[in-house]
Amino acid sequence: MSNDVMRSGSCLCGGVQFRVAGEPLRVGLCHCKDCRKTSGSAYQAFAIWPREAFECEGITSTYGGRSFCPTCGSRLPSVREDEAEVMIGSLDVVPTEGLEPSYELWIGRREQWLHPLPEARQFEHDRTVAESAADDGEPEAGREPYRKSA
Ligand SMILES: [Zn+2]
Ligand SMILES: [Zn+2]
């Protein structure tokens, strides 16, 4: 992967540093309850890389599959068996390049003053296998495990 573009990220205090190699599998926005609560913001913007493209140094804590820095509380990438979900706001170079969301989740919870991204697919809830089949042809394991909300 030496020719791949590398992106670095970190928490606010710098205790945790991570890197992702190459382009993400997909980029999205989520307005679900869990994303709102854990970020404290109105929605979360994230990009998902294959697990093997991700490396991290530092001590992290995890709650409900979502990781954060135990010192400063910053959200950090959620690492699953096959994928790593990176909050776009934790990346070091701003504004990011080439990380435009192609879908939005839980749009019923979107703030009234936000508008749908014109190019982004809109999902009422989580992205499902059937709904995402036409998306990009990537093999899909199923619902995204950390996008559950009511
Ligand atoms: Zn920190
Ligand atoms: Zn969410």
Topology:
Blueprint: E1 6-10, E2 17-21, E3 26-30, H1 33-39, E4 44-50, E5 54-57, E6 61-63, E7 66-68, E8 75-76, E9 78-79, E10 83-87, E11 103-105, E12 121-122, H2 129-136
Parallel strand pairs: 3-11, 11-12
Antiparallel strand pairs: 1-2, 2-5, 3-4, 4-10, 6-7, 7-8, 9-10
The structure holds zinc ion (2 copies).
Compact description:
By secondary structure, the protein is mainly beta.
How would you explain this protein's 3D organization?
The chain has helices at residues 33-39, 129-136, and strands at residues 6-10, 17-21, 26-30, 44-50, 54-57, 61-63, 66-68, 75-76, 78-79, 83-87, 103-105, 121-122. The protein is mainly β and 150 residues long. It has a single domain, classed as glutathione-dependent formaldehyde- activating enzyme (gfa) (Alpha-Beta Complex). Strand 1 (6-10) and strand 2 form a beta hairpin. The longest helix has 8 residues, at 129-136. The termini are far apart.
